[in-house]
From TrEMBL:
Domain of life assignment: Archaea
InterPro entries: Kinase-like_dom_sf (IPR011009)
UniProt name for this protein: Aminoglycoside phosphotransferase
Length: 312
C-alpha cells in the first residue's frame, strides 16, 4: 500500500476527473496494488469519501507478453467496456490518459467475485444463473457475422504456444480436423464475447453480476466460447481444490441450462460445449507447462475434443 497526498500529479488528476464524486478535494488517497495481473492494476481509495476507482496501466506489462501497442490496448478496452455496458453491467470506464503509462480508469465494484462463491459454495447456483443471463444478454444484443475460421486459427495458435510433443499435437490436429469438417459449431451469426472468463472477472454486487476486464473481447465469435471456457474454469477449480473435476458437472449443467432459451437449444449446445471447454482447459494448461498437472489438463482437453467422434 502507498498513500498519495495533494500535490501528487496522478492523484490530483483523479480528483479532477471524478468531479462531484469526491467532496473533499484535499483528501489523501490509498493505493492498493493487485497481484497476478497482466498489467499493473491498482485500486485508488479516497480517504473519507467511501469511493474507489481502479487504474490499469497498459504500458506496464507484467505477463509474458511485453511487446505490444499499449495505447491501442487502452483504447480497445475503453471501447469494449462502453459497447458492452449498453447491454450488461460492467466496471464503467471513467477516463483514459496516455501520458500516465496508458492508464484506463474505471469504477470500482464492491462485491464478491465468482471465485469466492466457488470456494464457499454460497449461492453458487444463483450466481451462475445470473451470470448466464448476463452473458446471454451480451451475446444476443451484439449479433454480427460469424468468423468460423478465426475459432480454428486461434485453437491452433494456442496449441503452438503449448509446444506439445509431436504425437500429442498430431492427436489434437486429427480431432480438430473432424470438428472442422463437422457442422456442429456452425452458427447463423457471431457476437461480441467476453473471452477472458476467469472466475476473478465476475463480481456479484448486491445480487447483481458485473463483468471486469474486457481487454480481450472478440467480435464475430461463437457465443458458446464464453460458456465453454467458463465451464472449463469450473472444472479446473474443482479438480485442483475438491479432488475431482467431476464435482463441477452439476454446476456446469445448471449454468448451460439457464443460458439456453429452450430444451432444444440446450441439447444442441451440449454437443458444441466440449469444443470450447477444450480451449478453456488448454488456456489453463499454459500456466502449468512445467507442472505434472499440465498432463491432466491436456488429457481432459483431448477427451473433450473426442466428443466429435460420437457425434459425426
Amino acid at each position: 500500500m502507498n498513500r498519495l497526498v495533494p500535490g501528487d500529479t496522478f492523484r490530483d488528476w483523479l480528483v479532477e476527473i471524478l468531479g462531484e464524486r469526491i467532496k473533499n478535494k484535499d483528501c489523501s488517497v490509498d493505493v492498493l496494488k493487485y497481484r497476478s495481473t497482466s498489467h499493473t492494476v491498482c485500486r485508488y481509495r479516497f480517504i473519507g469519501e467511501d469511493y474507489s476507482v481502479i487504474a490499469k496501466f497498459f504500458a506496464e506489462p507484467l505477463g509474458e507478453r511485453k511487446e505490444y501497442d499499449a495505447y491501442s490496448a487502452m483504447i480497445t478496452e475503453y471501447n469494449n467496456l462502453n459497447r458492452a455496458g449498453q447491454f450488461i453491467n460492467v466496471a464503467k470506464p471513467i477516463a483514459v490518459r496516455s501520458d500516465f503509462n496508458c492508464v484506463l480508469v474505471t469504477e470500482y465494484i464492491r462485491g464478491k467475485k465468482l471465485l469466492w462463491h466457488m470456494e464457499n459454495r454460497e449461492r453458487l447456483y444463483d450466481v451462475l444463473r445470473s451470470i448466464a443471463y448476463m452473458l446471454r444478454n451480451l451475446h444476443d444484443n451484439t449479433n454480427s457475422h460469424y468468423d468460423r475460421e478465426n475459432e480454428f486459427a486461434n485453437f491452433h495458435h494456442l496449441l503452438d504456444q503449448l509446444r506439445l510433443e509431436p504425437s500429442i499435437r498430431k492427436s489434437f490436429d486429427m480431432l480438430l480436423g473432424k470438428w472442422w469438417y463437422s457442422t456442429l459449431i456452425d452458427s447463423e451469426h457471431g457476437c461480441m464475447i467476453h473471452r477472458d472468463t476467469s472466475p476473478l472477472n465476475y463480481v456479484i454486487s448486491k445480487g447483481v453480476p458485473y463483468v471486469l476486464d474486457m481487454e480481450s473481447c472478440w467480435y464475430h465469435a461463437n457465443c458458446i466460447r464464453d460458456i465453454g471456457t467458463l465451464c472449463a474454469e469450473m472444472k479446473n477449480y474443482f479438480q485442483l481444490n475438491c479432488g475431482s473435476g467431476m464435482k463441477a458437472e452439476p454446476y456446469i449443467g445448471h449454468f448451460l441450462w439457464h443460458y439456453c432459451r429452450s430444451e432444444e437449444e440446450f441439447y444442441r449446445n451440449t454437443r458444441i460445449l466440449p469444443f470450447f471447454m477444450s480451449i478453456g482447459l488448454l488456456r489453463t494448461a499454459r500456466l502449468y507447462r512445467h507442472s505434472p498437472y499440465n498432463q491432466y489438463l491436456l488429457k481432459e482437453a483431448l477427451f473433450c475434443l473426442k466428443a466429435i467422434e460420437s457425434k459425426v
